[in-house]
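Run log // design_07
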């Protein structure tokens, strides 16, 4: 537990003044978890540490395990909450290509280009058209055979491509944007139901079927037993999502992807696209593997 005292607080303040004086002109200190713990151990009250966090750049590990460990060390809840706020990175604008996930980016999905050390922003493509396949089999079998519902994505190929079979993606959600860089009231993550997508688990990664002028993804089926809406479980490709900081996730497919057309599908009419509902109107963050 952290104890406060006038003598220790005064000593800590003196240390901060000396440290600040030793920094080059224009330099700004970057706080870490260890630095916050040291300030509290030196006797600074929680309010002062919160103010310090808000006024400084911060690179904090805020994983669940680390937060629990910090709480067990006696770090006050107000300090933990300040560490969880979007980082003050000193940035004056949002980036679209910085390779550093700690740098504020415009919300969206980015593919990391390892060969040229930059990020490529994937501009979402809307899918609001659906068609039904397998109708003949459905009719001839009296509904025993399933008819499939497919969402159509314009153009046969994605613009963002890579030769890497297991590419790395970064997803930046609204929570990641510092308050001073917030861009209006609109968001690429708002759905038609008024809810806001806030985690990769709300998207589905799929491989598209390719046609001459478009790509297709199966988003529903119907047979005599009933109907299903949403990306079919067997069509979903697994991926791992690691939270880098609040609102920022590193996403990697769990297996190498064969050459072809792929995309992360975000439902727009509410609900998780992998569960049910809303897949016929969706945003698609599409990319290609191979030339």
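design_07 sequence
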């Amino acid at each position: 537990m952290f104890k406060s005292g006038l003598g220790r607080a005064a000593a800590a303040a003196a240390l901060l003044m000396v440290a600040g004086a030793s920094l080059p002109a224009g330099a700004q200190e970057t706080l870490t978890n260890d630095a916050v713990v040291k300030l509290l151990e030196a006797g600074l009250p929680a309010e002062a540490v919160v103010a310090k966090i808000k006024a400084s750049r911060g690179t904090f590990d805020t994983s669940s395990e680390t937060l629990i460990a910090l709480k067990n060390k006696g770090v006050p809840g107000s300090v933990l909450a300040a560490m969880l706020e979007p980082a003050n990175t000193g940035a004056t604008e949002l980036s679209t290509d910085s390779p550093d996930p700690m740098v504020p980016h415009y919300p969206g999905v980015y593919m990391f280009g390892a060969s040229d050390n930059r990020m490529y922003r994937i501009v979402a493509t809307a899918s609001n058209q659906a068609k039904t396949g397998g109708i003949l089999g459905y009719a001839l079998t009296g509904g025993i055979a399933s008819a499939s519902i497919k969402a159509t994505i314009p153009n046969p190929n994605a613009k963002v491509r890579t030769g890497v079979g297991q590419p790395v993606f970064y997803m930046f959600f609204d929570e990641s944007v510092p308050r001073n860089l917030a861009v209006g009231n609109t968001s690429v993550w708002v759905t038609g139901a008024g809810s806001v997508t806030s985690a990769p688990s709300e998207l589905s990664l799929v491989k598209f079927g390719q046609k001459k002028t478009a790509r297709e993804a199966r988003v529903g089926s119907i047979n005599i037993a009933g109907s299903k809406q949403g990306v079919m479980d067997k069509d979903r490709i697994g991926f791992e999502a690691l939270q880098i900081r609040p609102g920022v996730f590193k996403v990697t497919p769990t297996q190498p992807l064969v050459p072809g057309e792929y995309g992360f599908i975000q439902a727009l009419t509410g609900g998780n696209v992998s569960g049910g509902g809303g897949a016929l109107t969706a945003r698609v963050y599409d990319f290609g593997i191979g030339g």
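Confidence is low (pLDDT under 50) at residues 4-27, 133-145, 270-279.
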